[in-house]
């Protein structure tokens, strides 16, 4: 990873944590978000980021603005040889376009643990066996840890966040 460029799309809490880890591996970090932040790495337009990054990882919420953010045109605009990682929300990536991008060699590979429909349907274009050398599909299990699900601390667990949200509303 040393010397490669990691492009982060979305720079919230998770994006910032991923940036720190990428820096620890000697990667150059660039990012794109709705607004620039005072960070020690360059803010780029999405188009610039896609052309520069060797690894593009998505850290955005699902909104009308981010739905199919990585569509056919943007996947085609990515740097040849790049890898896409989506651990954000499935519908942020146009799955049929991603399957085509991998089949036709627009990008080198992809790793996903979120899908437009979960579980991933049997007829999904991402299940094409010809994509196996270039595509890794994982279950979205990050939230399965006991602390993540049950901690009363709103900075740690979903249970705590739910309670804090109710308190905030009241």
Provide a count of the helices.
6
How far apart, in Å, are the first and last alpha carbons?
A: 47 Å
Largest beta-sheet details: 6 strands, parallel
* Strand composition percent: 5-15%
User: What is the overall pLDDT average?
Assistant: 93
What is the structural class?
Answer: alpha/beta
SSE layout:
Elements: E1 5-9, H1 13-24, E2 28-32, H2 46-52, E3 55-58, H3 72-77, E4 83-86, H4 95-103, E5 109-112, E6 135-137, H5 146-150, H6 158-169
Parallel strand pairs: 1-2, 1-3, 3-4, 4-5, 5-6
Characterize the structure shown.
It is a single chain. By secondary structure, this protein is of the alpha/beta class. The chain is 30% helix and 15% strand. It has 6 helices and 6 strands. A 6-stranded parallel beta sheet has the order 2-1-3-4-5-6, with helices on both faces. The protein starts with a strand and ends with a helix.
Summarize the structure.
This protein is α/β, with parallel strands linked by helices and 170 residues long. Helices cover 30% and strands 15% of the residues.
């Amino acid at each position: 990873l040393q010397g490669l460029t990691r492009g982060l799309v979305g720079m919230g809490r998770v994006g910032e944590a991923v940036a720190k880890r990428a820096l620890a591996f000697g990667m150059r970090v660039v990012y794109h978000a709705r607004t620039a932040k005072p960070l020690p790495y360059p803010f780029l337009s999405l188009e610039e980021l896609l052309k520069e990054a060797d690894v593009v990882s998505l850290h955005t919420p699902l909104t009308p603005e981010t739905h199919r953010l990585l569509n056919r045109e943007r996947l085609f605009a990515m740097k040849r040889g790049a890898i896409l990682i989506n651990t954000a929300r499935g519908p942020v990536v146009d799955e049929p376009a991603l399957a085509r991008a991998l089949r036709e060699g627009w990008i080198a590979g992809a790793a996903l643990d979120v899908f437009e429909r979960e579980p991933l349907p049997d007829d999904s274009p991402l299940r094409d066996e010809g994509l196996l050398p270039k595509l890794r599909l994982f279950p979205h299990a990050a939230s399965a840890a006991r602390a993540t699900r049950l901690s009363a601390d709103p900075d740690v667990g979903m249970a705590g966040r739910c309670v804090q949200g109710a308190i905030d509303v009241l």
